[in-house]
Design brief:
By secondary structure, this protein is mainly β. The chain has strands at residues 14-20, 24-28, 35-45, 49-58, 67-74, 77-84, 89-99, 104-113, 121-122, 124-125, 132-136, 142-143, 146-147, 167-171, 176-180, 202-206, 222-224, 237-239, 246-248, 252-253, 257-259. The strands form 6 sheets. The chain has a 6-stranded mixed beta sheet, with no helix packed on it. Strands 4, 7, 10, 11 and 12 form a 5-stranded antiparallel beta sheet that branches. The protein is elongated, with a radius of gyration of 29 Å.
Length: 260
Amino acid sequence: GNSMAIVSGTSIGTVTMTTADTAATVSTEFGEDDVLLAGFSLSAANEPVIWESATFKNGGTNSVNIVTNMRLLIDGDEVATADSIVDKYANFDMGSYVIAKNDTISVEIYGDIGIATVGNTVNLYVYNANDFSFVGQDYGFGIQMSATTDTDSNNIDDRIDGSGDSYTITLAAGDFSLDVDKSATPAKEIRAGDTDVVLATINMTSNGENATLTSLGGNALYVDGTTCYCDSLSNGELRDVDSGIIFDIAVASGPTASKF
């Protein structure tokens, strides 16, 4: 007959999810790259363990384009990739990655955020312990993952075993703000005949997606003050400090105020 190998239960390899990143809500921009989606640690014992595959479920918005170019990193090195989330799942072929006996590895998932809708979310978690496939290298038996923090008794760390756990990545609105930087242009005296006078430094910030400033409406900038001889202002310019590009702007001056 066929020979059979018999090993004791204590000799067969084990894989334990020892930690997982605590749940957090992260706001991100459309098109932002290298966004951390999930993180946890795995420990192997009794024998080296072959990691064959890993599947994550998205508890967020069901959109194939919401995140792409996903990378699974082990101890900082890219080991596996997934093009996108398909039918709420991201699948990684681990290429028979070997976790050494008694070794603990740090696992991180990164992805590139696509163009979706404001308020859409990405939330990767482990739906079932069997979604991770492991085989012992020495004895060849399949190994089911366990977890050190597991109040649900589902063999998955409590911090990554359900929708809303781990990181929830929320796509932010493309808010645009203007702020006068008084420290960059402090108050000072201006004399008749002065040229190239900096009247104000304005910080323009897009808090969500990339924004293009196409125009400034009438009276967008307003200058006034005590005993203001504003009708002496002319040749208004708007200068991009970073690029040096200069935009001519019309000045509507009067004795008490100037409007750009």
